[in-house]
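Lab notebook, page 48
Experiment: co-folding of the full assembly
Goal: obtain a model of how the components sit together before planning crosslinking
Operator: M.T.
Materials (sequences as entered):
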Amino acid sequence: MKIAVCVKQVPDSWAEKKMVNGLLDRENVDAVLNDLDEYAVEEALRIAEAHGGNEEGGAHTVTVISMGPDRATEAVRKALSMGANDAILVSDSALAGSDALATSAILAKVIADGGYDLVICGTESTDARMSVVPAMLSARLGWAQLTFASKVTVDPAGKVSITRVTEAGVDEISAAFPAVISVVEKINEPRYPSFKGIMAAKKKVIDQKDLAAVGASAQSAWSQVNDATPRPARAAGVKVTDEGNGGQDLVNFLAEKKLI
Amino acid sequence: MSTVLILADFSSDKATKTTAELATAGARIGSVTAVVLAGSGKGAALAATVNQGPIANVLVVESDDFASHGVAASADALASLVKEKSPAAVLIASHAFGKEVAARVAVLTESGIITDAVDVAADCTATQLVFGGSTTVHSKVSHGVAIITVRPNSVEADLSASSPAITNGTATIGSDAKKATISSSQPPVKGGRPELTEANIVVSGGRGTDGNFAPVEAFADSLGAAVGASRAATDAGWYPHSHQVGQTGKTVSPQLYVACGISGAIQHRAGMQTSKTIVVVNKDPEAPLFDIADFGVIGDLFNVLPKATEGITARTN
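Observation: model returned without errors.
Model output:
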């Protein structure tokens, strides 16, 4: 099987984020591999391992695919240190400010050219939190959409089934290869890169491509930010210490605010 | 007058309050047509429940593909209606299903997309609260039809009764949309409590519960509230992951949020700090969540919550 995992480098979720000229300021914050993409990397590795592994020269490969600036190699390298075989990073200054539609178009082109059986993504990035790229990839590629998976079962002969878990309930869904999968947090426990893995990742190939090499052109964002204003910080209100009356104080507060 | 399509949202075969919220926002832009995607023979019954909010027309499309091919089939149908009706905007509920339908419709109709709007103005400008609610953003789709997903419980719904004209339509569902097949579907386990993202009141528990959510649940039930949990609590297996509030869980924006035994890591705040009123119960006076609480009780939740539950029950009986 050829498995691709889409990952994104995002600002550390602890970092304070700011908008500059209608875009998230990515320059002045620590950048990390999107938390939720680690589950996708882990799941891809587990699928390969369940069917003989992704050792060099073996039957299965796990390729990391990302789009981002040069420094996104750090996030890609982390996915490689977890055990992925190789990576493709699309990096081109013309792609700065891409929206989800533009990003999905570039990723879909790379995926279509790579001849993968499965593409695995996290459910969302922790910066934009849109949850739309996996569905967009499926629509663009014309592949089956198997998203919000809490369980993935693969038959390497070309069939994949998932358990989809959302607020609408639980669905059992299956499809033939190729398919786009997104996995929810909790599907697995992502491994920490081992020392050996980190050392090995330094030697793994990150194929960095610009738009010309991908054979695609940049598309401007189809939505624009008019303005972005920091909201005033919430001020702390009344604080009481429970000396037996805390519960009743709480009820009185709710009654005063007409919340009960 | 321009047309606005909304994708009617259902729960247990009834239109949700979210449907009326979408209609309320949509009516600012134009005449609202609610699209009802139903299984064969089920359209009339579903359409009859779309009776609240400023809805001029209900357009019913029946196909068994919606149940067997889910998001992709629904998106194909909606996209074909968008091409047919050329609406000014398409408004869809901002949950997993709605966002994915919107994503595919945006691709299929070559339109820009905005997700998680908390408000939509007459000129289709969407308001979003980003970075965990710390920044307000106004943005606008600049290509094709404005595809906007609206967060439940954000727009104040006009719940007045309406009797829209109901018509039946057809829509095209392509073969690519039928590549994934749903073999079984189970509705969410309700447990008698409201859905977390739609609830007016949410009571959440964290590390301070030490695994015992009974007082949190009892207090929630006295208020008719949904129960949430911090990541620490769901990671420990104390409460189902589906109830996690925070950056990697659900984002809630209720009238009242009560955090019990939750210290308030920035990731948790990201999921709840746009709540209208925040109450914090924690025995650690230094818990950072107190900084954004309208009312804080420094005390053990195992003492405070049962007394509060008693107090609420006494008032309502």
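Interpretation: Chain A has a mean pLDDT of 94.
Next step: discuss with group before ordering constructs.
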